[in-house]
Write a structure and sequence with these properties.
Layout: E1 3-5, E2 11-17, E3 22-26, H1 40-45, E4 49-53, H2 70-83, E5 89-94, H3 96-108, E6 113-119, H4 138-163, H5 174-186, H6 189-201, H7 205-209, E7 215-220, H8 232-238, E8 243-247, H9 254-257, H10 259-271
Parallel strand pairs: 3-4, 3-5, 5-6, 6-7, 7-8
Antiparallel strand pairs: 1-2, 2-4
Helix pairs in contact: 2-3, 4-5, 4-6
Organism: Streptosporangium jomthongense
Keywords: Hydrolase
Pfam families: Abhydrolase_1
Length: about 270
């Protein structure tokens, strides 16, 4: 397992497979590199290099007390890109990982990036403000955090089926649901709270408007974790010239339940 060190001395784990033009996969909140097991073999076989990151507090990476704000997490991603000297990258971000990709572009530019895919991304801005009346109230963010502190396993367990929208007939076995739950609970509890809070407060609207590289936005209509009206559709309206695809039976876990469709859509993006 290779590691690299960030500016504050945190050691982060990553995985690196294949050769060819690189695709950097940025995982969901509370999940790590392992979530991309349905993407990596496909893209390696297509002749691409797949690089996967365990963000701080997740997977096999260090669990520091700080650095969970969106800017530091975007800088962590940039450090990985520079560590491997990656160029002509396709960045693929899922859920909160989409926010990290968006903030990376703001802070580090598009010089090394050729394409972007936002998958079930928690964008553009969740918090309700005077200029963002579609957002959710602050008390919702803090109420969820209070539930984490009281019974984090129960919170995740109650949402495990909805994550994959199994009520719509999606192929997510009990074993897959259990595995996803265990992976979420393996994330540092402190990181779970801090990344949640940071994601809720991050405003990506200006940055999304400034994207100039080809961009794919994919979202599930039945996503219970990132409601499509608040996230995917609004993101698609902000990113100039993006391709927007909505999966009618898709929940939040498209990477598993709709892996074939998602892989082909990302492949179309990568091929340009």
């Amino acid at each position: 397992m290779p590691y690299f060190e960030t500016a504050d001395g945190t050691r982060l784990a990553y995985e690196d497979y294949g050769t060819g033009k690189p695709i950097v996969f940025v995982a969901s909140w509370a999940l790590g590199a392992d979530m991309w097991e349905y993407q990596v073999p496909f893209f390696v076989e297509q002749g691409y290099r797949c690089v996967l990151l365990d963000r701080r507090g997740h997977g096999r990476s260090d669990r520091p007390s700080g650095g969970y704000d969106i800017d530091t997490r975007a800088d962590d991603l940039a450090t990985l890109v520079e560590h491997l000297d990656l160029r002509e990258i396709t960045l693929v971000g899922h859920s909160a990982g989409g926010g990290e990709v968006a903030r990376y572009l703001v802070r580090h530019g598009e010089e090394r990036v050729s394409r972007v895919a936002f998958v079930s991304a928690v964008l553009p801005f969740l918090k309700r403000t005077d200029d963002n009346p579609q957002g959710a109230p602050e008390m919702l963010c803090e109420a969820v955090i209070a539930r984490f502190r009281k019974n984090r396993p129960k919170w995740f367990a109650q949402r495990a089926q909805g994550f994959y929208a199994t009520h719509l007939g999606n192929d997510a076995s009990p074993a897959l649901v259990d595995l996803t739950l265990r992976r979420c609970l393996d994330t540092a509890p402190w990181a779970t709270i801090e990344v949640w809070r940071s994601t809720f407060h991050a405003d990506h609207r200006e940055g999304l408007r400034a994207i100039t590289v080809p961009t794919l936005v994919v979202h599930g209509t039945a996503d219970q974790s990132a409601i499509v009206e608040m996230t995917g559709r609004r993101t698609a309206q902000l990113v100039p010239g993006c391709v927007y695809k909505e999966y009618p039976t898709g929940g939040h876990g498209l990477f598993a339940t709709h892996s074939e469709q998602l892989n082909n859509d990302i492949l179309d993006l990568v091929k340009g």
